[in-house]
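Page 37, continued from 36.
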């Protein structure tokens, strides 16, 4: 992991990871009972790409990690290449 909660206009990058030579921007969404991926809208995707474009190196991939909390426990999903 290179950084977390990295603020760069026009947004924020939750996680910036170097993964086997690949620079990966990771958006993390969490919700109680609801599907967190519903919060990753086309507008959010576009803002994340604009933010990533301002890094010193262009990210090769944008991933989404969702965490859903519920009565039955925690459901964690890693969705590579979402935008």
């Amino acid at each position: 992991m290179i950084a977390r909660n990295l603020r760069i206009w026009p947004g924020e990058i939750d996680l910036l990871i170097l993964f086997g030579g690949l620079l990966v921007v990771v958006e993390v969404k969490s919700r109680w009972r609801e599907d967190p991926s519903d919060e990753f809208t086309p507008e959010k995707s576009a803002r994340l790409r604009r933010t990533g474009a301002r890094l010193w190196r262009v990210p090769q991939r944008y991933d989404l990690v969702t965490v859903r909390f519920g009565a039955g426990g925690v459901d964690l999903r890693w969705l590579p290449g979402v935008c």
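The chain has one helix and five strands. Flag for discussion at group meeting. The radius of gyration is 13 Å.
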